Input
Amino acid sequence: MDQNDINRLRGKTAVVGLAESGCGLASGWSAMEIMANAVHDALDDAGIKLKEVDGVFAATAFHSMAAMSLSEYLGVKPKFADGSQIGGSSFLSHILTAAMALDAGLINVAVVAYGSNQKSAGGFKTISEAMPYEAQYQPRMPVTAYALSAKRYMNEFGATREDLANVAVSARDWALLNPRAYTHQDGPLTVNDVLSARPIVDPLGKLDCCLVTDGGAAVVMTRSDRAKDTKNTPIYLLGAAMEHHHRMISEMPDLVQTSAIESGKRAFSMSGYNPNDMSTIQLYDAFTINTLLFLEDLGFCKKGEAKELVKNNNIGPAGNLKVNTNGGGLSCVHPGMYGLFVTLEALRQLRNASGDDVGQRLDGGWIDNAKLSVAHGNGGVLSSQVTNIWGVSDTL
Amino acid sequence: MAENLVGTVGPEQQFKNFLSEGKFMIQRCKSLNKFFFHPRVAFPGSGERDLEWVEASGNGEVYSSSCNRRLPEKGGDFNLSLITLEEGPRMMARVEGVDPDKVEIGQKVKARISSLNGEPAVIFDIV
Output
């Protein structure tokens, strides 16, 4: 098998519907109910009936067999289902699997879904078992893992907590333009706000860490020939690739280089586009360090240079790089696993630019003429990396 | 061959048993002459199974470090570091004997066997 075989999936499938449900707080709603709301709304958005769904893809922290539980709840009898659990990036890998199953003719309509009521149910809910050889030291996972990476990054490249804080400041500036963002009304952040926030695991403080919210999301995928006839603008999957090198942070080969280097390289190659072609850049920012690492590993700058790239709000609304335009996991929404929300924002930007009504933003919140988005998912402790490249029809 | 495991224990339990005896042991692949951690049934990545246990020198270097904030009534702040062993492999551990936020990358450390929550544990001190 060579890259040409893999590339035959390029543009063969598209997302034709999307929705979120219960983002922020959804007291009184179960994770399954939130997830099912999102599926039904996404199908309504697509104009596709539930009875046509024959592929179901889901993962949550609440269901050990999420794809099966969701199928039963929906009353769907899937011909192919996948509940692979590789952390927060699971959904970006589900999208690749769904594209393969659609292209192979196993299924005709796929839904990829997530739901969580972690905030109203009491706070961050881990999906992880205790790690052998680590658990006895009582790391505060996942924060400790990202703090270890951040400390090493700062040491190797002379980065500072201010450099990390710049990421949180820009994310908040985007959230201020997005009425859907959990912190939309909270006002801007300053670097000093981030530095003086309560320390969690040094060098990361509370505002270096993502939100803890409720929320669910879903997307509907079909083959591209069908997608042309649905009621909204289809967004085509041009590239997708995944890779992972470790599960435990103590096994990460290099704390400042993620396997996004490999997933990104293959996804961009499959798409036929380069990082610089991307109109929007949606990165899984569970922590401020993530954004720096992924900007580098996906090829937006050289290793160690992201701290310069994020200065002067260059990844904020007035900057040159349109990064995490919903406000990200840091300031928009983070219901435990954020991957499908990275995806939703990548898709929404392209649909808005194509004339679909996908909600209101304040001036500057929507990217004019957006044609290509990269959605990058991260799972575990900088472990699983999955990159999806999305484009409108004239990028095919 | 490892078809019948009755009467034996796996590498994880062997590691813990060594710790209980006061020994910090790591595995070495004889044919590759390479050490690795954590303990496994075969060399990671290439699968060699000619393994032996060797007592670690205990010498290491801080690869990265974090200060985990915790309320005083729950035990207070503690350090959690990744240590690169002199033999090559890396492991998670705590560095003790200094303030938990004063452990720096590149510092030389030495292992000792202590206990955490009643279980034997490898702990490092700054050299």
Observations:
- The mean pLDDT of chain B is 96.
- Chain B touches chain A at residues 12, 37-39, 63-69, 78, 80-82, 90-94, 101, 105-106, 116-117, 119, 121 (CB under 8 Å).
- Chain B has two domains: 11-55, 59-126.
- The longest helix of chain B spans residues 11-20.
